[in-house]
From TrEMBL:
Source organism per UniProt: Rhodanobacter lindaniclasticus
Classification of source organism: Bacteria, Pseudomonadati, Pseudomonadota, Gammaproteobacteria, Lysobacterales
Presence of keyword Acetylation: no
Annotated transmembrane regions: 30-49, 55-76, 106-129, 135-152, 172-191, 211-237, 258-279, 302-321
Name by which UniProt lists this protein: Permease
InterPro entries documented for this protein: DUF979 (IPR009323)
Amino acid sequence: MLRIEHAYWLIAAFLLYSGWRNLRDGHRWHAAFWIVLGLLFGAGDFILAQSAAGHALPAQIAGIGVIALACLAPRLRRQAHPENRTAEQRLQSAIALGHRLFGPALLIPLVTLLVALFGGYLVIGHFALFAKSQMTLTGLALACVIALLAAARVARTPVLEGVAEGRRLLDAIGWAALLPLLLAALGQVFTRSGVGAAIAEIATDFLPTGNATAALAVFALGMVLFTVIMGNAFAAFPVMMAGIGLPLLIHQHGAHPAILGAMGMLCGYCGTLLTPMAADFNLVPAALLELRNPYGVIKAQAWSAVWIFASTFTMMWLLVFR
């Protein structure tokens, strides 16, 4: 059975490969960062099992690893990897391949969707190929592997060259590659620390709780604001849903949970367009494209965020209470 742990082991193997290549090239800080991260990914199952059994030492070692990552991150610098081909050769290759280049990229959402929809039916005897609770994530991991193989076939290059290009991109992004993971975990930290309950108390004290439109507006704007603060709508969602979505909109005013959740996340994504905290979306592209203004991406998409939010809130107000 394919489980999410297999995807983590695959990520761990890639990170350890990146660390080994950096160590061989003399980039010791990059090597140490990716090796420590790879070990944390690879040992996650063992750490959880030991913690459940009451053994604290593996979790403490993992904590030391996280602290080591924080200490190593400021030392990472963008690495210039030698190119096997000139820019002109790469351009000619891209022109020759044409639209076939989009095929491997489109395989990722397609395979993920197929696994999410039909993975539960893939059973050989009594053996299920996918764990039902993790089909979307395992499907995404499988889709990335299939896309890598397809890209190698389309470009007529060895698979290892694709892995090497992934390592080059990882080194270019640096520590910002971890931001989605860290910010998503931050949402759970906020929820468990009682931020959602505090927001619910404030909303009850100061909002006209009998006014569904006002509660919906606070929920939508809160999704934007918390996403701007935390850089990720996934981190903002549990906080706002626990504080306003569930107690006021769903339980008190009868809002449709699916519509509220989906369109509330879209409101949060508007915040993603506006914040440097979403570094992997807004700062990393500016660095890779060598823009003069590091916030040029945010500046270019700010009005798009405003109009998308206005349209989303209008549609949510029309649909969520039906």
